[in-house]
């Protein structure tokens, strides 16, 4: 990567904020998009790399069938995101890091890169019931987490890989934890906006429920179809704010299915590592990144 590329990967125009949010399923990322969409003069792109990864010409699954998005390659997504967009003050794109595994050359240039992470215990125990409730998932790929996510690192290690790739190219990504966001939505959104150049507005703290057809974001047709079939976005579409559960769920690890326990075991060290880089609430302790890295090394995951 050239010095010019290094600079443009994390640079936004003075009058325009360009921000990528990398995340994983069930991490509040769609609700986060809804918050950004409350801003006037914002342009939000929803999961275009994901659409290419699953449904484009170089998709990773169902390759024996015709692609549902035959012209949506990762190269085309990169070009779309990098285009001028002179009419908007905020360009915001949300996607999953695992969709670029092995293709970090497809990272869009000119963006501030941010990560939204979540405790794997909460993430996977939220994802598993959604898969089990989906007739389409049961019929096509089943409900095993590995088969459904289609990434060896269960979407979280791929966030770690992308995070480290950016750091190796002299870019410091911004990390936000979902629990911190739910605990203090306004405080954490103010911090996020301060670090990304997005102009904070109090109206980002609430929004109206909407149907998919009412959403003004940019979303590939195939992803709209996927939501109609599986309802992935419905929780966020029906939401009105970042809402902390009134009663925290108690999760007994030993009673979870084997695939969920495996996913949690594999990904927790990577989550803990990223967690130490997060934007910290005002009452948080100082980071201990070295300890987190040591935990990963001891488990022979890197």
Short structural description:
By secondary structure, this protein is an alpha/beta fold. 43% of the residues lie in helices and 10% in strands.
Question: If you had to describe this structure to a student in words, what would you say it looks like?
Answer:
This protein is of the alpha/beta class and 302 residues long. The protein has helices spanning 3-9, 29-36, 48-55, 74-82, 120-133, 135-140, 145-149, 156-168, 178-183, 185-196, 221-230, 234-237, 258-275, 289-298; strands at 17-23, 42-46, 90-96, 112-117, 174-177, 218-219. Helices cover 43% and strands 10% of the residues. It has a six-stranded parallel β-sheet with strand order 5-4-1-3-2-6, sandwiched between helices. The longest helix has 18 residues, at 258-275. 39% of the residues are buried.
Supply database-style keywords:
302 residues
The tally of helices reads 14
* Largest sheet properties: 6 strands, parallel
List the helices and strands in order.
HEHEHHEEHHHHEHHEHHHH
Structural class: alpha/beta
User: Unreliable stretches, pLDDT < 50, 5 or more residues?
Assistant: none
How much helix, percentage-wise, in residues? 40-55%
Terminal residue distance: 23 Å
Shape, per Cα inertia axes:
globular
Q: Radius of gyration, rounded?
A: 18 Å
Average pLDDT taken over every residue: 86
Strand order in the sheet with the most strands: 5-4-1-3-2-6
Strand portion, in percent?
Answer: 5-15%
Number of separate strands:
6
């Amino acid at each position: 990567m050239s010095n010019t590329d290094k600079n443009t990967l994390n640079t936004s125009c003075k009058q325009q904020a360009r921000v990528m949010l990398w995340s994983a399923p069930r991490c509040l990322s769609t609700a986060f998009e809804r918050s950004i969409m409350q801003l006037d003069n914002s342009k939000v792109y929803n999961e275009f790399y994901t659409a290419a990864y699953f449904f484009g010409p170089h998709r990773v699954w169902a390759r024996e069938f015709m692609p549902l998005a035959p012209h949506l390659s990762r190269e085309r997504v990169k070009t779309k995101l990098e285009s001028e967009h002179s009419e908007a003050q905020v360009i915001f794109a949300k996607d999953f890091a695992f969709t670029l595994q092995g293709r970090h050359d497809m990272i869009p240039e000119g963006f501030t890169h941010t990560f939204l992470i979540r405790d794997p215990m909460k993430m996977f125990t939220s994802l598993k019931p959604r898969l089990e409730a989906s007739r389409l998932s049961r019929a096509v790929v089943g409900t095993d987490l590995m088969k459904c996510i289609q990434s060896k690192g269960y979407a979280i290690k791929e966030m770690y890989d992308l995070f480290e790739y950016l750091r190796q190219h002299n870019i410091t990504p911004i990390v936000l934890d979902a629990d911190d966001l739910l605990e203090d939505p306004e405080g954490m959104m103010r911090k996020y906006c301060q670090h990304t150049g997005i102009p904070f507005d109090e109206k980002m703290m609430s929004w109206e429920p909407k149907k998919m057809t009412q959403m003004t974001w940019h979303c590939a047709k195939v992803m709209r179809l996927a939501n109609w079939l599986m309802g992935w976005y419905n929780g966020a579409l029906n939401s009105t704010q970042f809402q902390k559960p009134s009663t925290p769920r108690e999760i007994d690890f030993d009673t979870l299915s084997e695939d969920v326990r495996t996913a949690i075991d594999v990904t927790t060290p990577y989550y803990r590592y990223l967690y130490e880089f997060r934007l910290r609430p005002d009452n948080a302790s100082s980071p201990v990144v070295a300890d987190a890295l040591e935990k990963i090394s001891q488990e022979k995951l890197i």
